[in-house]
Amino acid sequence: MIYLAGTLAILVFVVAFERFGVTRAAVRAVDTTRAVARLLREPTLDDNMKERVLRQASLSLAGGFFSIGIRGLGALAASVLPLLAFELIGLADFAAVVSWLAGWEVIILVSVGIALWYLLRPGR
User: Fold this and answer.
1) Which domain holds residue 33?
2) Angle at Cα 65 formed by Cα 35 and Cα 73, nearest 5°?
């Protein structure tokens, strides 16, 4: 049951990560950074305007950092729920599942699997 609980936790994390919009928030932060970099290279803008752009971007990026962090924590918290349920029902020990999830084999396999899913999914 350890493997089932761990796999369910991984699936819940992936779904919550997508539903909570972590990737979209990260893409917005990257887009902001790219737009600001383009503006800073613009020769027609004076230094005062560039400084204003940088201030606005820094606030936007700070908000994005906070947003990504909160959304990521939400996905992590959601993934713990199946583990707690398995523990309460007596099907799997929470610590044993976390220990299995923390193994290098699982981390590599899940990382590669998620990366492939993200790159190959339709409508990307």
Assistant:
1) 2-120
2) 140
